[in-house]
Amino acid sequence: MRSDELPLSRAVVDRGAHLRDEHHLAAFLATSTTRVVLVREGRVPVDGTGALVLSTVADARATSGRTDEDPWLLLGVDDEIAYLGLRVAGSPDETTDLPREGSPADRLVHATTASTHAASSRSDEQHAHHAPPAAREAVRWASPREIGAALPARDAGLVTTAVALDAWHERHPRCPRCGGPTRVTQAGWVRACTVDGSEHYPRTDPAVIMAVLDADDRLLLGHARAWAPARYSTLAGFVEPGESLEHAVRREVAEETGVVVGDVTYAGSQPWPFPASLMVAFVGRALTTDVQVDGVEVELARWFTRDELARAIVDGHVIPPSSSSIARALIEDWFGGPLPHTTATF
Question: Which residue has the higher pLDDT, 295 or 120?
C-alpha cells in the first residue's frame, strides 16, 4: 500500500499556506482563472459522469445562497490557478441551483502542463470531451465516499480538503474557551473569537484501522451493529488521550473481538473527512484467535481465508468496504489484488 495512491490521499495541489491572508484571497477572487469547489453538507457537485464541476467565482457567488460573509476557503494554487472552496447553504438534496457543466474554459482549467499531473490531465480531457452532453448536464451533489476513488488526483485532493474544512466550520461557530462567536480568518483556515481574541484551528481526529492476521494468514473482519446486513470491514477505532497508535490498535481489537494482538506494523494513512478523521492503517499479528464480539459496536466478527472471502463476496454474503476507503486497500493488500465482484443483488 502506498499512501499517496489511496483515493483521498492523492493531493497534488500546493496548499499555499503562505497565501492564506486577506490580500491574496481578494486577488484570487478578482482573477478570472480562479475556480471554486462548492461544498454543501459534506457533498460537492458532480456531473452525470461523476466528474467534479468547478465554478467561476461569479457563478459560485450566485449559487451560494449565503447572506453572511462569503465563507471562502483557500484550497491551494496549481499552475498559477487558485482553487477556492465555498460553503453553500441548504440541503444537499437540492439541485435546482447547481451550476451546469460549465464553459469550455472551466473544462480546460483541468488540463495542466505539469508533468506530475499528466495522467490526471489526460483523464480529465477524455472525460470532458467524450462524455454525452446529457450526462454532463445531470449535475448533482455527491459525497467523497461515493466518488473519491473515481476522481483524478487533483480533484480528489481538492474535494477532501473542502469537505473537511466545511465540516469543521459547521461544527465550530463559537469559541470553545468563552462561548463567544467566531469569525473566519486566514482564508478559511482559522476562526478567531470576537470576544477574547483567541484563534482556533481545524481539528483532525486520529483513528486506527487494522488488518489483523493470524498465524495461518487469515484476515479478521467485523460487522458493526449500525451497518447494513452483510457489510464487513477491518476493525477500527479512535485513538484515546495519552495513547500511542500501536496501543490503540491492540486495545480496539481486544475490546471489539477479544483477540489479542502482538506485533503492529504501520501500513499507511488517509484523510477521512466525515467529519474530521485521519485513518492510520496498520497490520496487526494476532496472538489468539478466539473471537468474542462486544455486541455493542461489533455484532459479528470472523476469520477469512482468501478463498472464503472471495466466495462470500461473490455469493453476496459479504459486502466489502467502498473503494474510496483505506479499509478496502488493507483488504486488497492482503488478498493480493482487487476483490471479486458480487453476483448478488441488493
Answer: 295
Predicted confidence (pLDDT) at residue 216 exceeds the cutoff of 60: yes
Is residue 14 within 8 A of residue 76, CB to CB? The reply is yes
Give the model's pLDDT for residue 197.
Answer: 97
Q: Is the bond preceding residue 132 a cis peptide, omega within 30 degrees?
A: no
Cell of 130: 467524450
Contact between 165 and 85 under an 8 Å Cβ cutoff? The reply is yes
Q: For 112-176, where are the E strands, in sequence order?
A: 140-142
Residue with grid cell 457567488, as numbered in its chain: 61
Distance separating alpha carbons of residues 33 and 31, to the nearest angstrom: 6
What length does the chain have? 346
* Phi/psi at 106 (5° precision): -65, -35
Phi, psi of 334 (to 5 degrees): -70, -40
Give pLDDT, residue 89: 81
CB 10 within 8 A of CB 153: yes
- Separation between Cα atoms, residue 53 and residue 140, nearest integer Å: 9
Query: Going by C-beta distance under 8 Å and a sequence separation of 6 or more, which residues neighbour residue 127?
Result: 49, 51
CA separation for the pair 74, 31 (Å, rounded): 14
Q: What is the pTM of this model?
A: 0.85
Where do the domains of the chain lie, and which CATH numbers do they carry? 3-171 (no CATH), 205-335 (3.90.79.10)
Q: How far apart are CA 162 and CA 156, in angstroms?
A: 10
Angstrom distances, CA of residue 93 to CA of 114, 139, 216, 242? 36, 11, 47, 41
CA 293 to chain centre: 28
Residue 64 grid coordinates: 451560494
